[in-house]
C-alpha cells in the first residue's frame, strides 16, 4: 500500500524502499 502514514516516512530505510519501488513502476 503506497498510502503509508507520514510517521513511517521517518525511517530512511523505508523511504529508500518506497523510492526504489516507485522507480521500478516508472
Give me some keywords for this one:
flat, mainly alpha
Write the SSE topology.
Elements: H1 12-25
What would you say this structure looks like, in words?
The chain has 26 residues and is mainly α. It contains one helix and no strands. The longest helix has 14 residues, at 12-25. The radius of gyration is 9 Å and the shape is flat. The mean pLDDT is 77.
Strand elements, count:
0
Mean pLDDT: 77
Spans of 5+ residues with little confidence (pLDDT < 50)? Answer: none
Gyration radius (Cα, Å) is 9 Å
Please outline what is shown here.
With 26 residues, the chain is mainly α. The chain is 54% helix and 0% strand. The protein is flat and about 25 Å long.
